[in-house]
Amino acid sequence: MTVLHQPGTGADTGGVPEWRPRVAPEPLLPDARPVRVLGTPALKERDPELLRDLYRHLVVGRRYNEQATALTRQGRLAVYPSSTGQEACQVAAALALSPQDWLFPSYRDTLAVTARGVDPVETLTLLRGDWHSGYDPHRWRVAPLSTPLATQLPHAVGLAHAARLRGDDTVALALVGDGGTSEGDFHEALNFAAVWRAPVVFLVQNNGFAISVPLAKQSAAPSLAHKAVGYGMPGRLVDGNDAPAVHAVLTEAVERARHGGGPTLVEALTYRVEAHTNADDATRYRDADEVEVWRRHDPVRLLEQGLRELGLLTDADAEQAAAAAETMAADLRERMHSDPSLDPMELFAHVYAEPTPQLREQEALLRAELDAESAAGTGTGTEGAGR
Ligand SMILES: Cc1ncc(C[n+]2csc(CCOP(=O)(O)OP(=O)(O)O)c2C)c(N)n1
After folding, report:
1. 61 Cα: distance to centroid of ligand 1 (angstroms)
2. What is the mean pLDDT of the chain?
């Protein structure tokens, strides 16, 4: 219960104004150890259908990462930040939400977006460099993938707060990396979320690095989950490679938010097994041994093992999941190999309601250039096409 700052009478404190913490800090402290479900008796209590669903999404997600990375090598995708090793966080995030909820992803969260139902090709539109967002955020209740770090967090808080004011039972779940917690937007978002008791959940995927910068060079906090206490919200710590555990912790936080309990900060401990993107060489800043340790703590294999031990997954189920992954990859490959039809003039659309004189001038220059190319027969063949 919130206690307002109370100056008191000073009578019983020797003239020093009385002070009490405004919120008791102990209940906000994160779990002493990362929550785990796999390898514990709690696994048996989870819904078998949910566990199988998580597994199928993880297998498809792993394949999506492989295929998207291959597309960068074939020149079909400008950049891809792989989430191999982080699939459990992303899939659990999508599956913890109800249809009326909103997801606020970063550039690395393509699996969370597709697990929510967005077309795998449309998820990649931004990373292909074609358009700001390939999907309709309102239809899917998924904000555009955010490249500027942590900017999605205040957006999530604003949406959640507005939903609450309108009486909607919508919860926003915002994803951010460990590096993103160093941004001012992280602070502003968490602070307002707690002050407003907004129905929002923050999931930090602590994958160890912000490109080449290890977490130890960014934060001296006991854990990122501990930061929650300073804002007045609970912090949770979970094994980010344990899909049922991430799902359980997020579901609890989402339902708490939905029922007026306010925001939660969840830190999922995971690891970015691949390089930051296809443009990065991770061998320059980390040891192969470290990567190997995490490869052994693999989210897909861990879940498969847990399900098989309980008799919840047969060879046929595993083959079916693998076949679904191959079908998705083949479709992705085929559709990404056809040239998008783009209209370069759209660069100027949706910038301002009233374009500035400079933009009008640039627009006219580009139009003239495209017309000249087209008259000379050297155009890109994309002029005037819809996207
Ligand atoms: C505001 C801002 N500053 C810097 C960058 C450049 N940048 C892109 S990714 C990245 C590291 C982010 O690390 P983290 O938040 O841990 O996420 P991860 O990439 O590991 O998922 C940086 C600094 C950016 N995109 N936005």
Report:
1. 22
2. 94
Pocket of ligand 1 (CB under 6 A): 81, 108, 147-149, 177-180, 207, 209-211, 272, 276
Per-residue HEC secondary structure of the chain comes to: CCCCCCCCCCHHHCCCCCCCCCCCCHHHCCCCCCECCCCCHHHHHCCHHHHHHHHHHHHHHHHHHHHHHHHHHCCCCCCCCCCCCCHHHHHHHHHCCCCCCEEECECCCHHHHHHCCCCHHHHCHHHHCCCCCCCCHHHHCECCCECCCCCHHHHHHHHHHHHHHHCCCCCEEEEEECHHHHCHHHHHHHHHHHHHCCCEEEEEEECCEECCEEHHHCCCCCCCCCHHHHHCCCEEEEECCCHHHHHHHHHHHHHHHHCCCCCEEEEEECCCCCCCCCCCCHHHCCCHHHHHHHHHCCHHHHHHHHHHHCCCCCHHHHHHHHHHHHHHHHHHHHHHCCCCCCCHHHHHCCCCCCCCHHHHHHHHHHHHHHHHHHHHCCCCCCCCCCC
Look up the CATH superfamily of 26-336: Thiamin diphosphate (ThDP)-binding fold, Pyr/PP domains (3.40.50.970)
The structural domains of the chain, with segments of one domain joined by +, span 26-336, 344-376
Catalytic (active-site) positions: 272, 276, 285
List, for residues 255-278, the tens digit of each pLDDT value.
999 999 999 999 999 999 999 999
Region of poorest pLDDT, from 126-140, 193-207, 333-347: 333-347
pLDDT of residue 194: 98
